[in-house]
Amino acid sequence: MSTPDPLQRFDPTAPPSRVRIKSDALPQTGAAGANVHGHRFAAPEVVFDAQEVSVFYGAKKALTAVNLGIRRGEITALIGPSGCGKTTFLRSLNRMNDSVASFRIEGQILYHGHDIYGGNVDQVEVRRRIGMVFQKPNPFPKSIYDNIAWAPRNLGLKQDLDERVEKALRGAALWDEVKDRLKDSALGLSGGQQQRLCIARAIAIEPDVLLLDEPASALDPIATGAIEDLMHSLKGRFTIVIVTHNMQQAARVADRTAFFSLESGTDAKSVGTLIEFDGTETIFSQPRDPRTRDYVTGRFG
Ligand SMILES: Nc1ncnc2c1ncn2[C@@H]1O[C@H](COP(=O)(O)OP(=O)(O)OP(=O)(O)O)[C@@H](O)[C@H]1O
Ligand SMILES: [Mg+2]
């Protein structure tokens, strides 16, 4: 008897079992979204579909009723004032908040149609498919090579490891700078190089999605530019979700932008709320909501 395809036969009422999430490889750049006749598909594929997502830390509600679809192969930016729940939302996408004891989520986040918080989803698979890079570069205190090789080794991907390491470093636009010092400690790299190393580390296991939480906030303008160029080059190969405080950066890199804000809830406590989500151009030049306009034009606060 063959194993049922979890995508085809996903049954939310089924008893928990280890489900491996499936998705086809992204099309090659240039062919994205086109069928054999070269026509564009009408509906872009949605990687994440957040439905009425509310997040709590203990009694505190951090996010309320977020509905947001993240499209495959695109860069989606999350913007908004401090404390509006951008990081909370991002970390909810790969269950990174599970380690926070007080964390609780309501609503659903579907990843390729699977409820990512469903009991039958393999959490290791989720982390493998959905990579994350944090605000502060956090290389391991190991060599440059071993930083990149660590996750592939852990996953048993030991074949052609040198090629894999080189490909990841090239993908992160770092190869030329480090190819002669692969055995040196990663801690000796500059901040911008360390952040690109962390991106290389994330892409070494060829994830489906990259989640980036303010990846350039600690970097100077040149290193920031390198990270932005890198995002452009990774676009299409990966689906990218980036949190940024930098309006220009969102405008430069993102296809679509979500603006979150802190709004007064029914109990007069402020809660993170998705105000508007649209094409980046629209959010920055013709937002529908005055709160978005005030924020993107710098009139906020
Ligand atoms: N581990 C946690 N425990 C309790 N409360 C938390 C935790 N993490 C975040 N919060 C609270 O949830 C709310 C949203 O925080 P979050 O870090 O998601 O905001 P943010 O939009 O990323 O802010 P910033 O722009 O400052 O990074 C804040 O009120 C924050 O204090
Ligand atoms: Mg944050």
Supply Rg: 20 Å
Helices, by number, come to 10
The helix fraction, in percent, is: 25-40%
> What is the approximate shape?
globular
Mean pLDDT across all amino acids: 87
Structural class: alpha/beta
What letter string, H or E per element, gives the SSE order?
Answer: EEEHEEHEHHHHEHEHEEHH
Separation of the first and last Cα atoms: 62 Å
Low-confidence stretches: 1-19, 28-36
Q: Main β-sheet, in a few words?
A: 10 strands, mixed
Which ions and ligands are bound to the chains? Answer: adenosine-5'-triphosphate, magnesium ion
* Quaternary status: single chain
Strand content: 15-25%
Task: State the strand order across the main sheet.
Answer: 5-4-1-2-10-9-3-8-7-6
Q: What's the number of extended β-strand segments? A: 10
